[in-house]
Design goal:
mainly beta; Immunoglobulin-like; 4 domains; 6-stranded antiparallel sheet; 9 helices; 54 strands; about 10% helix
């Protein structure tokens, strides 16, 4: 039998159709061409893009693949197809696309039956799935393979079976926009009486749903707290919108086949993935014009599902983050506030439904919660429209946005940092500033490098920087910071840390797109070993002679003009805990040596050759303190204060001379003991009773030999001024001699205490109600439980 092949021209009217009359009065078709129109808009469309429900820029109207199934006239939804085919469409198929597909006369008979004796038009049913994702995609591929085999099988092709197939949004999510949307639709197609032309149209419904928030009013909020009236000023330009408990999985037609997600099927987008969190845009953008609304230009999308009220998860909702400024005492405190916005309601049902466009309208006139975990729920009004026919305002088609996945990054011992971004237009970058501290002098300075030139796809800032390499001599070296725009929506920061840099660099750069949106990113880059510094606090409550400091030893505080105050332990022996200093002996007016007023914190991530020289010992990073089982009270420190006592002090181990703590703070020159040098036992007591700058007593200890040598090594290299200029006790019971640069036996020496930041953290002691640190109350820490206790009144 001769095979007769015709060609079907399948026309996919994805978005652009002239009018509803285009279907009522179809354009005459050339004989032999079959037209099928797939629509993602309603029949009331009046011209291109007018009233169209889908947003082309968001791929809502894109059709890239279709699976088409033909059924004989009269077949019900449980009857298998008689013919099926899969087509891949050209990229960007958002308008009418024609494809010629060969079809045999036998296949026409299978679909429409034999020709009637009297020529007449005949009909058949058609079902179409577009953009199918796995696991449905794999099943459809197998169905197509079975149908194309030498013994064709159409098992599993009933409309009911196909609508039950599961679809899954592929992850992990890296972009705010979707690549396409799963759709389906079915209708009746007509074969002309001369059996040469097929015509028909199929209205496509999306399997998912879409959510957009409209904020029509944002008010300044006034609250009363005690005697204070606080005015909270909204900063809507910095708002972010999160999405909680959407479903990434469903059936192709969830209305016909309800879907209850497993816990792994849910997804949430929140602050830990800022590249996906939506920004909001003002309409109109001109802030001088009256506000119509703020809205998330890119909607959130979810698959529909049956919500289980008795399950572990809350219903699907939005959480809005609105930053507020509250000027207090001429300082603007910024706080994020959180609002929960439900998408569904008990009245209208708690289930998300397919092909629905949820338009949520809110006004913000109350103060949100300051905790994301407990957002304030606000009243809403909303419209649930048919996504296929809902009107999309024209201004939404021209959406503009720029988001980055995070605005801050801490990079430790690494040369690069990568940031994801999502933008409506190409972006450029510019480094605004690079800042770091130079601790080489007592009055350490913050160095600022300012970026120059215009934003570009690559922007750099360089300087000739002084470096202090271990085992080498200080010299200048070119130090370059670079930010660049890379493929795949990546912003790259790069700076190769020079050998011999021991300070944190803070890099501030801006990403800007062509639509005028910008995001600022701050990178803190840490070398493997670094230090920070702060000046030991001095307070003046009146004349200079009334100045007082933050060093307190067993209740005695450093002061100005009182002389060096001798301190004794419970024995009453004058000065057997040394002294606290008269300020001129530190500020330089009374003594030109040992006048470093800074308190340094050293962070040791690794030890390299040259850091510690001279004896070939095996230095290591670790905990130099005695174990908790050996912690106990300190004799001679028991009678001052009766409420709390230091009963579990962990001093430095004598056998830990080669140990360096991972992060430790070293006392400033305000803590020196020039009134009277100490025996080793009394030096241990002094450190147990020592407090400075709000870092509590009971936590300081005598440094190890390795810690002293480490500080001396970096001081001699020029990283910071000398801290040891004489003889100082080490935890080994030996003392360091700065003249000979050796450890030796000693009887009465000085001590400079250290504080274990790696263990206790960098938080300070007692705080006053105004937020300042109360240096007048000595603090003591019980090491095992970390509780800070008051240790009697100051003397």
């Amino acid at each position: 039998m001769k095979r007769i092949t015709s060609h079907i021209t399948i026309v996919l009217a994805v978005l652009m159709v002239a009018s509803c009359n285009w279907f009522e009065d179809p354009v005459p078709m050339p004989k032999g061409e079959f037209r099928l129109t797939l629509m993602t808009t309603g029949l009331d469309t009046k011209g291109p893009e007018t009233g169209a429900a889908g947003e082309t820029n968001l791929n809502e109207n894109l059709i890239d693949t279709v699976d088409i199934f033909f059924y004989q006239n009269g077949a019900d939804n449980n009857t298998n197809a008689v013919h099926c085919l899969k087509m891949a469409l050209p990229a960007g198929s958002n308008s009418i696309v024609s494809l010629n597909i060969p079809i045999s006369a036998d296949e026409i008979v299978k679909i429409f039956g034999t020709a009637p004796a009297v020529p007449a038009a005949t009909t058949a049913r058609i079902y179409v799935i577009a953009n199918a994702t796995n696991p449905a995609r794999s099943m459809l591929n197998q169905i197509m393979a079975n149908a194309a085999s030498s013994t064709p099988s159409y098992a599993g092709t009933s409309i009911n079976s196909l609508k039950h197939l599961e679809i899954l949004k592929p992850g992990p999510y890296t972009s705010q926009t979707e690549s396409s949307f799963v759709m389906d639709g079915y209708s009746v197609v007509t074969l002309s009486a001369d059996r040469t032309t097929i015509s028909g149209h199929v209205k496509m419904d999306r399997s998912g749903c879409k959510v957009r928030l409209f904020i029509t009013q944002i008010d300044t909020v006034t609250t009363i707290e005690g005697s204070d009236t606080l005015v909270w000023i909204p900063q809507p330009q910095y708002m972010r919108l999160f999405f909680f408990n959407g479903s990434r999985k469903t059936h192709i037609d969830e209305t016909l086949h309800p879907f209850t997600p497993a816990s792994s099927d849910y997804f949430t987008i929140r602050g830990n993935n800022m590249v996906l969190a939506r920004t909001l845009q003002r309409m109109p953008a001109d802030a001088s014009q009256p506000l119509q609304y703020w809205f998330n230009t890119i909607p959130y999308y979810s698959y529909p599902f049956d919500f289980n009220p008795s399950g572990d998860l809350d219903q699907t909702s939005l959480v809005l983050v609105l930053p507020l400024l509250c000027p207090i005492a001429n300082y603007e405190h910024s706080h994020n506030t959180y609002y929960q916005i439900p998408i569904t309601s008990p009245t209208n049902g708690l289930d998300l439904t397919r092909n629905s466009y949820y338009q949520i309208y809110v006004t913000l006139s109350m103060l949100g919660n300051f905790e994301e975990s407990d957002p304030v729920e606000i009243p809403i009004s909303f419209i649930v429209a048919d996504w296929t026919t809902a009107e999309i305002k024209a201004e939404m088609r021209d959406y503009k946005y720029l988001t980055v996945d995070r605005n801050y990054e801490k990079i430790v011992n690494q040369n690069t940092g990568l940031f994801k971004y999502s933008s409506s237009s190409p972006v450029t970058v510019k480094i605004n500033t690079v800042k770091y501290f130079n601790y080489a002098q007592n009055n350490f300075q913050e160095i600022t490098l300012n970026g120059t030139g215009n934003p570009a796809t690559t922007h750099s800032v360089s300087e000739n920087r002084m470096v202090y390499p271990p085992g080498g001599t200080a010299h200048q070296e070119l130090d370059t910071y670079t930010v660049s725009v890379e493929p795949d929506n990546i912003i790259k920061f790069e700076r190769i840390i020079p050998d011999g840099v021991f300070t944190i660099s803070t890099i501030n750069f801006t990403v800007t797109n062509e639509d005028g949106f910008s995001e600022t990113i701050v990178v803190e880059q840490y070398p493997p070993i670094y230090l920070t510094g702060e000046k030991s606090t001095v307070y003046n409550t009146g004349p200079t002679n009334n100045q007082w400091g933050s060093v307190i030893v067993y209740g005695y505080r450093s002061r100005y003009g009182s002389g060096n105050r001798a301190i004794s332990d419970d024995s009453g022996t004058t000065g057997n805990l040394g002294s606290v200093q008269d300020f001129p002996t530190v500020t330089g007016t009374g003594n030109t040596k040992n006048n470093n007023q800074n308190q340094y914190t050293v962070y040791v991530g690794s030890l390299a050759e040259g850091f510690i020289n001279g004896d070939g010992r095996n230095y290591a990073i670790g905990d130099p303190r005695v174990p908790i089982s050996q912690a106990g009270p300190v004799p001679g420190l028991q009678n001052y204060g009766t409420t709390f006592k230091l009963n579990q002090y962990r001093k430095s181990r004598q056998d830990a001379s080669d140990m360096i703590a991972p992060a430790f703070k070293i006392a400033s020159s305000y803590g020196k003991t020039i009134f009277n040098v100490l025996s080793f036992t009394q030096a241990e007591k002094r450190c147990a009773a020592y407090q400075e700058n709000g870092y509590p007593a009971g936590r300081w200890r005598v440094p190890t030999e390795a810690e002293i040598l480490f500080i001396v090594n970096r001081s001699e290299a020029g990283v910071f001024p000398a801290l040891f200029d004489g003889k100082y006790w080490a935890s080994s019971g030996r003392c360091y001699n700065s003249a000979s640069k050796q450890f030796e036996s000693g009887i009465y020496q000085s001590v400079r205490c250290v504080y274990d930041v790696w263990y206790w953290g960098d938080a300070k002691g007692d705080y006053n109600s105004d937020g300042t640190i109360d240096y007048g109350i000595p603090m003591i820490g019980d090491n095992p439980d970390g509780i800070a206790r008051q240790w009697g009144p100051v003397r």
